[in-house]
């Protein structure tokens, strides 16, 4: 009986040792998986920070573009006024030219 119980104890010890080794292996795999996810997470955090900085820079560029468009609109209005003035002056020159021509006849 002693040999049977000692062989049973040995097999139980071997089984528990094997299960312990399997659990250690599973835990090591889980730790490596967790490490990879943490590394990915830190990279995604860097990407999010870069995206936020780029967005802020883009926002500044859009504000500058809006200001430039407003200035261009003002310039377009002033050019329109100048064009009308030049047209009036040209029309007046034609009328004056006709009057001079009539006076010379």
From TrEMBL:
Protein location: Lysosome membrane
Coiled coil: 48-75
Annotated InterPro entries: BORCS7
Cellular component GO terms, alphabetical: BORC complex; lysosomal membrane
Keywords: Coiled coil, Lysosome, Membrane
Principal place of residence: membrane
Family matches, as PANTHER family: BLOC-1-RELATED COMPLEX SUBUNIT 7 (PTHR31397:SF1), BLOC-1-RELATED COMPLEX SUBUNIT 7 BORSC7 (PTHR31397)
Family the UniProt entry places it in: Belongs to the BORCS7 family.
UniProt name for this protein: BLOC-1-related complex subunit 7
Native source species: Parnassius mnemosyne (clouded apollo)
Lineage: Eukaryota, Metazoa, Ecdysozoa, Arthropoda, Hexapoda
């Amino acid at each position: 009986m002693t040999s049977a119980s000692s062989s049973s104890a040995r097999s139980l010890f071997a089984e528990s040792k094997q299960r312990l080794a399997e659990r250690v292996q599973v835990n090591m795999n889980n730790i490596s998986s967790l490490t990879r996810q943490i590394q990915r997470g830190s990279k995604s955090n860097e990407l999010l920070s870069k995206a936020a900085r780029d967005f802020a820079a883009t926002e500044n560029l859009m504000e500058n573009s809006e200001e430039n468009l407003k200035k261009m609109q003002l310039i377009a209005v002033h050019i329109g006024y100048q064009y009308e003035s030049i047209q009036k002056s040209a029309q007046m020159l034609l009328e004056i030219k006709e009057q001079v021509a009539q006076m010379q006849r």
